[in-house]
Design the sequence.
């Protein structure tokens, strides 16, 4: 029971402390899930992001379901998901009920202009860490660079990048495993 | 029955919108046109509120739409119920799909082909996140929608770069401070934003 409560509270914290979309959640997730709780390794977090980006639904929910399921089975996945949406439910309902034109308030606009700057830096820090864990040789560096530049300059769905990168990974690995066997035979 | 329809509409949104929270916007436009629960103008307000509150964007949108729709027909209780039902509708497809994938992944995670696929997926995932980060940089620093908007002229404020530099140094190199929870930096940035009128 207490483990489920822990899952709920941890993901409620992640949901409540995330400002922006699923990508802005990354620094918070990394701190709460990888550093504090040790529920996933940073490179596993990348696997979950990859899957979350090419499956239906919003990334934040996909990640919560995934980590919850890996930790405590189906019920764990459901509880983590309820946790991550719970703060939104409370905060949005309160704001919608009590404050009209919340987003037009000057202090809210100013605060979020500051927060966006901070989120850029935090995502940068996370990307550096994840880069070290995921980009290990020249092939993975090329995949990283191609996907990063491609999605900045072109309007192609992330699904395409994920599928192509997965296929490339399988091809490169099986080729390099093959060449290793050849070497050993010589 | 309004609540059943709310659930169904957001179930569809959750099932077909792939990617970040903003991927839900076209579906919400469709709901607006079809049901008249809210206007396009309301939708713009909803996006603004969803972006100015904690929590994932898509969830915030669903909660907001559910609340306003329920409220307009059944009062406050209807609003709260509507918020919960719309959010539930949005997350149910994710839960089902991800549980199935997670089941197979934990079964085959030591399979060499699965490992090989993830060898390619991880750098792609980091690449996508980097690109999303660059997208946020464009909005936060240059008020530009995408990289091509920069061609129309580059506008920026020095204060924004100073804040970024301060947070970068503090969160990477200053002992003890760099281990603070990310929310500390976010709160600091919010205060700086208010004090120095960052949105002006």
Sequence:
């Amino acid at each position: 029971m207490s483990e489920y409560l822990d899952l709920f509270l941890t993901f409620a914290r992640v949901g409540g402390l995330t400002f922006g979309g699923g990508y802005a959640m990354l620094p918070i997730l990394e701190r709460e899930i990888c550093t504090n709780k040790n529920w996933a390794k940073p490179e596993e977090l990348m696997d979950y992001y990859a899957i979350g980006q090419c499956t239906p639904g919003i990334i934040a929910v996909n990640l919560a379901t995934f980590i919850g399921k890996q930790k405590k089975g189906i019920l764990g996945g459901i509880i983590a998901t309820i946790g991550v949406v719970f703060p939104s439910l409370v905060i949005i309902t309160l704001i919608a009920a009590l404050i009209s034109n919340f987003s037009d308030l000057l202090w809210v606009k100013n605060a979020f202009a500051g927060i966006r700057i901070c989120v850029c830096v935090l995502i940068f820090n996370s990307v550096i860490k994840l880069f070290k864990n995921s980009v290990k040789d020249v092939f993975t560096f090329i995949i990283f660079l191609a996907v990063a530049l491609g999605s900045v300059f072109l309007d192609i769905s992330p699904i395409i990048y994920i599928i192509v990168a997965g296929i490339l990974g399988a091809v490169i690995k099986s080729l390099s495993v093959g060449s290793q066997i050849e070497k050993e035979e010589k | 029955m309004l609540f059943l329809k709310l659930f169904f509409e957001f179930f569809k949104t959750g099932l077909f919108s792939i990617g970040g929270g903003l991927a839900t916007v076209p579906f919400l436009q469709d709901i607006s046109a079809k049901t008249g629960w809210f206007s396009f103008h309301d939708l713009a307000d909803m996006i603004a509120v969803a972006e100015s509150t904690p929590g994932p964007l898509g969830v915030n949108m669903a909660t907001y739409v559910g609340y306003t729709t329920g409220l307009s027909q059944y009062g406050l209780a209807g609003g709260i119920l509507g918020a919960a039902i719309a959010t539930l509708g949005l997350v149910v497809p994710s839960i089902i799909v991800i549980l199935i994938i997670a089941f197979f992944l934990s079964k085959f995670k030591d399979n060499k082909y699965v490992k090989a696929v993830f060898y390619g997926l991880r750098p792609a995932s980091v690449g996508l996140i980097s690109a999303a980060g660059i997208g946020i940089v464009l909005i936060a620093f240059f008020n530009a929608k995408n990289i091509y908007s920069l061609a129309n002229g580059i506008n920026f404020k020095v204060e924004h770069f100073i804040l970024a530099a301060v947070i970068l140094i503090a969160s990477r190199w200053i002992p003890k401070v760099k281990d603070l929870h990310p929310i500390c930096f976010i709160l600091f940035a919010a205060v700086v934003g208010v004090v120095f009128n960052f949105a002006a």
